[in-house]
Amino acid sequence: MTTAKPSRQRHVAITGASSGIGAALARAHAARGDRLSLAGRDPDRLQAVADECAALGARADVTRCDVTDADATAAWLRAADDAAPVDIVYANAGIGGAGVIAPWTAEPGELARAIFATNTVGVVNTLTPLIDRLVARRAGHLVVIASLAALAGLPHSPAYCGSKAAIRIYAEGLRRLLRPAGVRVLTVNPGFVATPMSASLPRQGPFTWSAERAAATILRAVDAGRAELTFPWPLRLALAATRLLPTAWVDAALARAYAKDQGR
Ligand SMILES: NC(=O)c1ccc[n+]([C@@H]2O[C@H](COP(=O)([O-])OP(=O)(O)OC[C@H]3O[C@@H](n4cnc5c(N)ncnc54)[C@H](OP(=O)(O)O)[C@@H]3O)[C@@H](O)[C@H]2O)c1
Predict the structure, then answer these.
(1) Which of 44, 188, 198, 207 satisfies CB 3.0 to 4.6 Å to 232 for a cystine?
(2) Which atom of ligand 1 is nearest to the CA of 194?
(3) Residue nearest to atom 28 of ligand 1 (CA)
(4) Is the pLDDT of residue 10 over 70?
(5) CATH H-level superfamily of 11-261
(6) Could you give the percent of the chain with pLDDT greater than 90?
(7) With 70 as the cut, is the pLDDT of residue 1 above it?
(8) Is the CB of 193 under 6 A from ligand 1?
(9) DSSP 3-state helix, strand, coil percentages of the chain (rounded to 5)?
């Protein structure tokens, strides 16, 4: 992958910057001297990340903002852009881990709606407020943190997989819509990354990356103007196989594996 580290300071807006991948992205941009506008719900953890960025020499402004609130998210992003034109928007905030695991043979509607509200509608709320400005400037980068779970419907969390598949295809369409206007869109499909979200699962997932490694890889993909980044490759291969093998086999194997996982 060719990378071209930008020479000028950029203004980077990140949702879900108070933890995990979002916090690691903030620190990675701070280390480059970029200006940061950070959003999250937990003010103390958000401020702690901003302090780390400041210690790295970056300016980091924080805003408490829930991405399911479209008006608040738009107001935060437009105010940040008024202060200094935003170059990169990371739609990173999401819910996952143990909290989105479907109980055996049932996934309550309330849980599914909450997952889609944050992981799908929250991403729409984050990407849309600045699109007209980026198009007018013929510049800018939108980055969507989806998931490997976007590549297949898995029995442990149908709504999580569906919420991530929706934003993956949404971002793909946006990329093709905005390309002539000079606005880039990158979709990221991470496998397991060591964060509080993955730590909530009963055991560590295979091929787990550190948040720092994930953030550094994402930054290289942004620099290279890539369309999509999916890691790690062994899990990418395994999920791609679910599309190539007969559906009846895949259904039976995944249902059996989840039942075994649940001690059935
Ligand atoms: N870790 C993994 O293995 C993994 C794998 C694939 C994809 N991902 C995706 O990567 C993204 C980041 O996850 P992570 O692993 O870094 O998890 P994390 O450590 O739990 O962080 C999640 C972040 O999202 C924020 N958030 C959640 N709901 C929000 C809401 N309604 N409004 C605003 N912010 C909200 C949280 O803010 P507060 O803490 O302030 O509430 C937190 O900053 C998510 O979209 C996740 O689905 C993670």
Answers:
(1) 207
(2) 1
(3) 94
(4) yes
(5) NAD(P)-binding Rossmann-like Domain (3.40.50.720)
(6) 91
(7) no
(8) yes
(9) 55, 15, 30
CA distance 133 to 44: 31
**Residue 20 Ramachandran class (φ > 0 left, ψ -120 to 50 alpha, else beta):** left
Q: Indicate the pairing of strand 209-210 with strand 228-231.
A: unpaired
Active site residues: 160
**234 three-state secondary structure:** helix
Q: What is the pLDDT of residue 159?
A: 97
List the chain domain ranges. 11-261
The average pLDDT across 234-262 equals 94
d(CA 36, CA 87): 10
CB atoms within 10 A of CB 201: 14
> Tokens at residue 228, please?
């999509």
What is the separation, in whole angstroms, between the first and last Cα of the chain?
45
Please report the pLDDT score of residue 5 as a whole number. Answer: 62
